[in-house]
Design goal:
Elements lengths: L8 E4 L8 H16 L5 H23 L8 H16 L4 H8 L11 H9 L4 E5 L3 H11 L5 E4 L10 H11 L6 E5 L2 H9 L3 E5 L15 E3 L2 H9 L2
Parallel strand pairs: 1-2, 1-4, 2-3, 4-5, 5-6
Helix pairs in contact: 1-2, 1-4, 2-3, 3-4, 5-9
Length: 234
């Protein structure tokens, strides 16, 4: 793992990389199903999660293809929640609101807080997320994640892996791309960062997108602690 001495700024994906978004969303969907009196077993929750994810992926793709004007993550999450609610007969407005904002209340992974704090003593650390500005604010407050700077893809009116999203981080960093490290549990995210010249670090998470055999990321690690040790020489 050479080249750590060249890194000046570390940029982190948030959802899935620093927080357990998949687990938090699953718990929220199960809670909504129970509140509506619908079946809340794992198979039923899986089907509802598919409804949610398919909507989010489809709408982000339509935005990327200029079929739909940009809408931030809160808007799309609300639409997904309404689709799930329609499947389970959920009509309570408060329960629907709670489901739609579930991503703002997910828990950090066990290593996220300590490793982020340690790296923040050595590097400027930035969050770069597809989550809206408001969602990031509330998520950071809920989890205790602390950044030197937080960036939302909303500022680029696009979603990763659009290059303009990563350029938000490069502009904020004020460093050459090859001295800025993008950390993510999603290989597709790191490929997007590579496309604008950033260095890349894959961190394995239970529900991330693992690298393909032909991916050549700068680092690959089993967790944030392993990556931090490589970056700091600990």
């Amino acid at each position: 793992m050479s080249g750590a001495c060249d890194i000046e700024v570390v940029v982190f994906d948030v959802l899935g990389t620093m927080v357990d978004e998949p687990g938090g969303l699953r718990a929220a969907v199960r809670e909504a199903a129970s509140a509506s009196g619908a079946e809340s077993g794992e198979a039923s929750v899986d089907r509802l999660l598919d409804v949610w994810r398919e909507h989010v992926e489809r709408e982000q793709r339509r935005i990327a293809e200029n079929v739909r004007p940009y809408a931030n993550s809160q808007v799309i999450a609300r639409e997904a929640a309404e689709r799930v609610a329609g499947r389970i007969g959920l009509t309570d407005a408060a329960a629907l609101d709670r489901l739609a904002t579930a991503a703002q209340r997910v828990r950090p992974w066990d290593d996220s807080l300590a490793v982020l704090a340690g790296l923040a003593g050595r590097f400027p650390v930035l969050a770069l997320s597809d989550a809206s500005r408001t969602s990031l604010l509330r998520l950071n407050a809920h989890t205790g994640l602390r950044w030197h700077h937080t960036l939302s893809a909303e500022d680029a009116r696009a979603y990763k892996p659009a290059p303009e999203v990563y350029r938000l981080a490069l502009d904020a960093a004020g460093s050459p791309p090859e001295r800025v490290l993008m950390v993510a549990a999603h290989a597709w995210d790191l490929r997007g960062a590579q496309a604008v010249g950033m260095r890349t670090a894959y961190v394995r998470r239970p529900a991330g997108d693992p690298p393909r055999r032909d991916d050549s990321f700068t680092w690959r690690s089993s967790g944030l602690e392993e990556l931090a040790a490589a970056l700091t020489g600990a």
